[in-house]
Amino acid sequence: MIPVKKYFLFVLKFIFALLLINCSGNQDYKVAESPQKIIPLKIGDTIPEITVYDEAGNPLQLNNLISEKPSILIVYRGIWSMYCNQHISELEDIAQELYDMGFQIIAVTSDKPEKVVEMKDKYDVSFTIVSDTSNNAIKALGLAYDARKIYWDMLLVLEENSGNKYYILPVPAMFIINKSGVIMFEYVNPNFKIRISPELLLTAAKVTLQE
Asked: Under CATH, to which class is 32-209 assigned?
């Protein structure tokens, strides 16, 4: 028969272990089998704690950046994608209008920091771009999918640009987030060729400011 004291200590250790598992952060976020099967965060959800990296490779808390002012959060795949290049260029064209409304713009990419610098130089980008080579952000946002089946012929390109062999990509997305980290509007399309238009983005930004 197990002594009461030892049994009590065993139960406490078991409960503590469960608490550690439940508070383990982003490690358990799932990766979808395809772009069509992702389950993104929805309007009204709060952005969880996410670690990303700046151009020098230093860790940043995305939540701290978002808390500074209302944010336009853009998620794009990488500089290797012509559609992402066009999207970043179009976003820069309306960036000043968004700044004038009181927004900041933060873009998240699976590219490594060196490629972030290359993208910013290529389009003279004025807004913040952070690297998500660890896939923390795209998993936490519910945008991550396994790219191996779709991009089997581009695995070396993905590896070169991301600096890893995870072969995970995000479905391109746009979130409008308030300073509390709550999603006020979102645009997520599994068809990577279709991005939110500048006109729709500006309209959505104006509407969210009135809410």
From this structure: alpha beta
